[in-house]
Amino acid sequence: MMAFLKKNWFFAGILFVVLMAFGIPSLGQWVREYRILNVGIFLAFFITGLTLETSSIGSELRRFRAPVAAMISSLVVIPLLFWGLAVLALPPEFVIGVCIIATAPVTVAAGTVMTDLGRGNVSLSLFICVLGNFLAVFTIPFSLKWLLSFGGGIELPVLQMLSGLALTVLVPTILGQLVRPLVKGKLAPRRKAFSIFQQCVVLLIIFNAVASSTDRILQAGTAVILVLVFMIFLHSLVLAMNYALSRLIGLDRPSTTAFTIHASQKTLTVSYLVWAGYFAAQYPMALIPGIGYHLTQTIMDSIVAERFRAAAERAARRCGPG
Asked: Which domain holds residue 102?
């Protein structure tokens, strides 16, 4: 039992924080009042900058097809696709949540780790990560404003959102990159601890989101289950779309792995910043789709990465004797 919990501690942690959110919802108010999550998110992005090995992406700069296609998929096609399907299937509050996660950038650590697990092109994965997170800071306010204007004219302070995202995402990441050369040799033994800390920040985000909307979640009932099933459908669709796109533009096997996995992922941390700053008070359940998508990609992409790895190993065995 202990071995199982140690291996799956993150999923056990999700169950724990959800139960705690329903049992002690007032604790969420304490977390918000003392800005504990704000500090955690700042440190998480600082760690991102500290551990991000950007020197390895130089080889990808000359091959622009994959990163350009990844940006179009992640920041243009996915938001339009998610919004178009969500308005047909979900209540307005959840449509807002789907738009928030859809316009978010790709994940940082998770996508690269899963690319590596799948024997993919890690340099391309890192390039998609860096470029996607940089561009999304500028595209999120405009994309959200445009998408939500079709659903009732929700007004967003675009410039305020833009400066807020730059301050909370780009600044700590850049600081981490500036500090990195000074401590580079000491980072390797601490990578696991850094990863655990960042996952704990995600758990705190889930706790805060659920604690902020326990009554509404109970009232919604089966609608929440519908949202979770809908996010599974969306991620499956995006994985298939990005795999097909990678084949269409002629990527090799390792680059197909990186493109399919990383361009299909979305970060919950940036989604939380947008939700907490501009939607939480009026739409407390709007982060539920983001949580559902995060859980879906964590489980599903692990399976996809294993499939890619198995295919790469079979190909290596066929080519090995020659």
From this structure: 26-53+61-305
Cα angle: 135, vertex 139, 141; to 5 degrees: 140
DSSP 149: G
Please tell me the distance from the alpha carbon of residue 301 to that of residue 257, in angstroms, as a whole number. Answer: 11
DSSP of 287-315, one letter per residue? THHHHHHHHHHHHHHHHHHHHHHHHHHHH
Nearest-angstrom CA–CA distance, 108 and 126: 8
- Give the other-Cβ count within 10 Å of 157's Cβ: 13
Structural domain includes residue 10: no
In a domain, 71, yes or no: yes
In sequence order, the 6+-apart residues with CB closer than 8 A to the CB of 145 are 156, 158
CATH of the domain at 152: 1.20.1530.20
Tens of pLDDT, residue by residue over 145-171, are 999 987 555 667 888 888 888 888 899
